[in-house]
Amino acid sequence: MKKITVSKEAISKLKSLFCWVYQNELATPPKDLGDGEVVEIFTAGGEYLATGYYNSKSVITVRVLSFEKVDINSDFLEQRLQTAINKRKTISKKSNAYRLVHSEADMLSGLIVDFYNGFIAIQINTLGMEKHRNLIIELLIKLLNPKGIFDKSDAKVRKKEGIETLNGVIYGEVPQDISIKENEIKFVMSLYDGQKTGFYLDQRKNREIVSNYIEPNMSVLDVFCNAGGFGLYALQKGAKVKFVDASANALAQVENNIVINNFKECEIIKGDAFEYLTTELESGNKYDLIVLDPPPFAKTKKEAIGAIKGMKFLLSSGLGLLNPNGLVAIYSCSHHIGQKELFEVAFEASKNSKTTLEIVEYMYGDTDHPNIINIPNSAYLTGLLLRK
C-alpha cells in the first residue's frame, strides 16, 4: 500500500478523527499514485494517521476509511456493512424503510445505502468507493438478500470525481412503486422518479415530533411538502391540511398516499412556495401549524448568505400566517445553515415581526442518519419547532 504525508493542519484534523484531507493539505504531491487507490496517511516524521483512498480530481483528495492499519478488502467491508446494519435495528421496529449506510458517518465515505421494504437503493459517489462497487453489491446481497437493487448515484458529485453516472436496476427486479410504512402511515414511493435515494427518510423522527403537537381540526400548511410526510401525519391526527409543492410528480405522490391511507380534509396546491406564501399573506388566511421544509438552499459556503435571506422570508411569512399560539416548524438540510444559523434566522424574524417566539423543540435527522461529533458535516439536517 502506498503512503502519503500531510500538512500540520491535516494532522490535527485527522487526530481528531475527521475523515477528509483536502488537496492543499498534502505535504508533497504524490508520485505514481492512481486515482481511487487506497493509501496510508503519515506525518512527515513517519507517524501513521489513517488509511483511505485518493483522488487527484477531487478537492477532497483523500477520504478516510479507517484510523487503524487495516487492509481494505472483503472482510473489512463486510464488517463495516454489518456494523451499520446492526445499528439500525431500533429504527426497523418503527419503519420498513431506513438508511443502512450513511457515508462518513458509518466510516464508508462515498457510499449511501437505503432499505425500502426489501429493496435497496445505493449511491456510490466517489471514485475510491466505485473501485469496490462489485464487492459492495455482492456483500449487500449476502447480508440482506434484497429483492432488487437500484443505483441512484448522484450525477453532479460523480462528475466532480471523474466518473460516469449510473442509474437504474443493477440486481434483481425493482417495481415502479414500492409500498413502505412509517409509524403506521403508508407511503408509496418510487426509486425511478423519487428525489434523493427515493424518500426523505431523515425526517422520520421530526415528522413524529411535530405530530405530537397536532390536535383534531387544527389547520395545517405543509410547504415544500414533497410526498406529503408532515401533512400525512397531521391528517392521521384529524387535522385539516393544505399541501404545497412546485413538483407535479411530488403532488401525485401526495394524492396517492392520501388515498391508500383513507385520509380526507385536505387541499393540494401546485405552486412556488415563495409566491404562494406571499399570496396567502394577502388573503388573510391563518393556520395553527405551518411546516417549512425547503430543499437545500446552500450546497456550498458561498451560497449561505443568499440562503439565509430565503429562510428569513419563509419564517417571517410563516409567522404572519399563524394564529395566536400557533406553531411553525422550519428546517435546513444544509451543513452551512445549521442550528446556530437557524436560531439567528428565528431571532431576526421575531424582532422584525415584533413577536416573541418560544423554542418548543430542537430537531435533527433520525438515528439512521448518524450525527458524528468528529464529522461536523454529518449534522446536515437541523430544525426548530417554534410557538408564536
Commentary on this structure:
By secondary structure, the chain is α/β, with parallel strands linked by helices. It folds into 3 domains: 2-66, Archaeosine Trna-guanine Transglycosylase, Chain: A, domain 4, CATH 2.30.130; 74-172, RNA methyltransferase domain (HRMD) like (Transcription Regulator spoIIAA); 200-387, Vaccinia Virus protein VP39 (Rossmann fold, 3-Layer(aba) Sandwich), CATH 3.40.50.150. It is 30% helix and 29% strand. The protein is built from 11 helices and 19 strands. Strands 15-14-13-16-17-19-18 form a 7-stranded mixed β-sheet, sandwiched between helices. A 5-stranded mixed β-sheet has the order 1-3-4-5-2, covered by helices on one side. A 5-stranded mixed β-sheet has the order 6-7-8-9-10. Helix 2 (74-87) packs across helix 4 and helix 10 packs across helix 11. The protein starts with a strand and ends with a strand. The model has no long low-confidence stretch (mean pLDDT 92).
